Amino acid sequence: MTSKHSAIITCAITGSIHTPSMSPYLPISEEQIIEQAVAAAEAGAAILHLHVRNPDTGEPSSDPELFERVAKTVSARTDAILSITTGGSAKMSVEERLKGPTRIGPELCSLNLGTMNFALHPMADKPREWKHDWEKPFLMSTKGGFFKNTFNDMEQIIKDLGDRHGTRFEFEAYDVGHLYSLAHLTERGMVTGKVFVQFVMGILGGIGADHTSLVLMKETATRLFGDNIEWSVLPGGKAQMPLCTMAAIMGGNIRVGLEDNLWLGPGQLAKNNAEQVEKITRILSELNIPIASPAEARRRLCLRGSK
């Protein structure tokens, strides 16, 4: 099997979806995020997708100094690619969301491909003891709110990071229409070269996490971009391992991590991000699907390398 068939594994370490009360293993502090990121890279993740949080409350943070410290320390301890979020959380403005990435100027950043209902409120209905006062209102606010990323916002992100820093993007498509938005950006020359698209599946407000939707996303992306694409799948919740396995068999790449799913299996919380990376690498090993190294991922995604 040639190297082009190997699977690039991304691990999303903490995100802004889950709250501290949902799992004692969700990394919150600077040290926890760093240690779990390094362990995930050692387990086989070529890309580490990074958010940061307020270490006292666990709230999503846009603190550029915190981003910079985390990124520098992780980069010093591993050669994994860092993909810094430009999504932050739905409560942040675009300017807030860009504070960390523009401070770092990374080789890769995520970029959400549209404004959408990003509904987390069903998580607030589950009985649990809340550790912090902000958690339940934060989740409930998504019932009447939305995540804003207009074409103006996307163009601003591309200019501030792509044009000024040479950053390339992990384009996050939450539905089929987002693929057409990306095609529009390429037709206008805003996005050039090979595109790296992450199919985000299972967020309420976006496409569902099921096999027919994955096939639809893949076929649509192939029709729009041909061979000029690296695609990956990010299934939320219990669909994570089955759809990641399916994607790898189909010739795609995969994303795991506690941002997307807190569980390792039914009734079993993942104790860290590395456990999920280790599980999917075991599955792919049994299927004789190689795992891409950071060097191979950089080559295939046309990245400039870390500064």
Helix content: 25-40%
- The figure for the number of domains is 1
The number of helical elements comes to: 11
**What's the total number of strands?**
12
CATH class bucket: Alpha Beta
Structural class: alpha/beta
What best-fitting shape do the alpha-carbon axes yield? globular
- The end-to-end distance, rounded to whole angstroms, is 32 Å
Write down the secondary-structure element order: EHEEEHEHHEHHEHEHEHEEEHH
Q: Largest beta sheet, briefly?
A: 8 strands, parallel, barrel
Give the strand content: 15-25%
Rg for CA atoms: 18 Å
Which fold name corresponds to the CATH topology?
TIM Barrel
Q: Report the uncertain regions.
A: none
CATH architecture: Alpha-Beta Barrel
CATH superfamily: Aldolase class I
Round the mean pLDDT to the nearest integer and report it.
Answer: 96
**Strand arrangement across the biggest beta sheet:** 1-2-5-6-7-8-9-10
Structure description:
With 307 residues, this protein is an alpha/beta fold. The chain has a single domain, classed as Aldolase class I (TIM Barrel). The protein is built from eleven helices and twelve strands. The strands form three sheets. An eight-stranded parallel beta barrel has the order 1-2-5-6-7-8-9-10, surrounded by eight helices. Strands 3-4 form a two-stranded antiparallel ribbon. Strand 3 and strand 4 form a beta hairpin. Helix 1 packs parallel to helix 2, helix 7 runs parallel beside helix 8 and helix 9 crosses helix 10. The mean pLDDT is 96. Pfam families: BKACE (PF05853). Its cofactor is Zn(2+). InterPro entries: Aldolase_TIM, BKACE. This is 3-keto-5-aminohexanoate cleavage protein. Keywords: Metal-binding, Transferase, Zinc.
